[in-house]
């Protein structure tokens, strides 16, 4: 896990954050043993910004990965970062059950997906289309 956190720290340096100046890095470990990293990428049209977590997850999925072990996230914050709701929902989609949240001071908090997003919406609810 130390290696995964180090990869997230390194990815953070690539964050494109001219608007918020808040840099976030993420690193996702697959069951196949590969690590996919991500950073946040902002846009002048602010809402188009993508978080570091989703960058890493979408990079991995778009390379054919579906099975994940853990995601590490690092930011310069007063306490370990709390991922946004959108990223939590995407973590649920791919059952990323081990999430290690860190800050640049070395504080860590490890949470399960159920702790991060209890009573989550998932594919089990999609039983019919009412047509
Ligand atoms: O978990 C988080 C929270 C925020 N951000 C980014 C989005 C935006 O670029 C900046 C400020 O919200 O931080 C992430 O990448 N991950
Ligand atoms: Zn997010």
From TrEMBL:
One of its GO terms (biological process) is nucleobase-containing small molecule metabolic process. Transmembrane segments: none annotated. The active site is at 53 (proton donor). Substrate binds at residues 40-46. One of its GO terms (cellular component) is cytosol. Keywords: Hydrolase, Metal-binding, Zinc. Zn(2+) binds at residues 51, 84, 87. Its cofactor is Zn(2+). Residues 1-124 form the CMP/dCMP-type deaminase domain. Its EC number is 3.5.4.5. It is an enzyme of class 3 (hydrolase). The keyword Secreted does not apply. It catalyses: 2'-deoxycytidine + H2O + H(+) = 2'-deoxyuridine + NH4(+); cytidine + H2O + H(+) = uridine + NH4(+). GO terms for molecular function: cytidine deaminase activity; identical protein binding; zinc ion binding. PROSITE patterns: CYT_DCMP_DEAMINASES_1, CYT_DCMP_DEAMINASES_2. Belongs to the cytidine and deoxycytidylate deaminase family. This enzyme scavenges exogenous and endogenous cytidine and 2'-deoxycytidine for UMP synthesis. This is Cytidine deaminase. It comes from Thermosinus carboxydivorans Nor1. The lineage of its organism: Bacteria, Bacillati, Bacillota, Negativicutes, Selenomonadales.
């Amino acid at each position: 896990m130390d290696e995964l956190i180090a990869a997230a720290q390194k990815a953070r340096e690539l964050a494109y954050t001219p608007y918020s100046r808040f840099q976030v890095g993420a690193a996702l470990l697959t069951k196949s043993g590969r690590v996919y990293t991500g950073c946040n990428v902002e846009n002048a049209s602010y809402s188009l910004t993508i978080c570091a977590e989703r960058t890493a997850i979408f990079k991995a999925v778009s390379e054919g990965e579906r099975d994940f072990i853990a995601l590490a996230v690092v930011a310069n914050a007063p306490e370990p970062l709390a991922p946004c709701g959108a990223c939590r929902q995407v973590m649920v989609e791919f059952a990323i059950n081990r999430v290690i949240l860190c800050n640049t001071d070395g504080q860590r908090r490890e949470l399960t997906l159920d702790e991060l997003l209890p009573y989550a919406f998932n594919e089990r609810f999609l039983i019919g289309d009412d047509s």
